[in-house]
Amino acid sequence: MERLETHHQMNSTNRVRSIIKTLFFSTVVVLAIAVTFLHEYFPGSSQELLAHKKTYKTIINNRDVAFERLLAQLEKKNITIEEFIISYKKAKETSSLELKKFNKIRKELMLKDSYLGYTSFKNFLLGIGFPICGLILSLLFLNVVLNPVQHIFRKRYYLIISFAFIACWGYWVSWSFLSYSQDPNRPFDFPKLYYDIALYILPIVLFTGAYYLMKYYTSIEQKLKKILRPFFDFFYRDAEEKNLIRPEKKVEFDKITIELTDHVVTHE
Fold this sequence. Notes:
Low-confidence stretches: none
Structural class: mainly alpha
Distance between the termini: 51 Å
Strand content: under 5%
Radius of gyration: 36 Å
Number of strands: 0
Shape: elongated
Order of helices and strands: HHHHHHH
């Protein structure tokens, strides 16, 4: 009775550990995928910097208006050439001072927006998001290699994780080619809605194709194993058990068997 209770406690402990491990891996996977999208929720520049950049056109427009006014006065002979040159240089100097002031403030605001060497917190998230995702994916792959999946539940769980990562990277690969939103003035063959739909359809198509391709390869491998198993059974068991090998040929037979086995193993 005591042994049965101990066994029950061990099963309960293992079940709790399995649940905790599953929740931990699920959280890590969600964070790894989410970190590639975090930058979308932050502005590339502060409102203060954006507002300041808009003043650049005002400075240029004021300078151009001043030049045009001087040219108009010169054409109407309201001012002399000497007066035009003096006024032109003055307008140009005023514009240059305003541009220097503009650039100084712009650099200060850009420095204020910068984060850990990046021009903004958005670019910082963009810069670390994909490497973090790739690192976590590599660690998960290493875990699968060191701890081969045998249980059917774990296989299905890792299948879901694979789909999540393929969907994530498939989305970004699709986004790289279907960059409609990056340049709305660029002519496209189809409406924007089609490109937006493709961003979500292509990752699913990619995962489905990869899944069935690997499944097809696995089925071929299993069929080959079934075909080759009788031959190996014959060489390693049946031939000797049924005394089909002459004693004087036993050494030669074993040598040929080892050579064939090495050849199959090294070329599988």
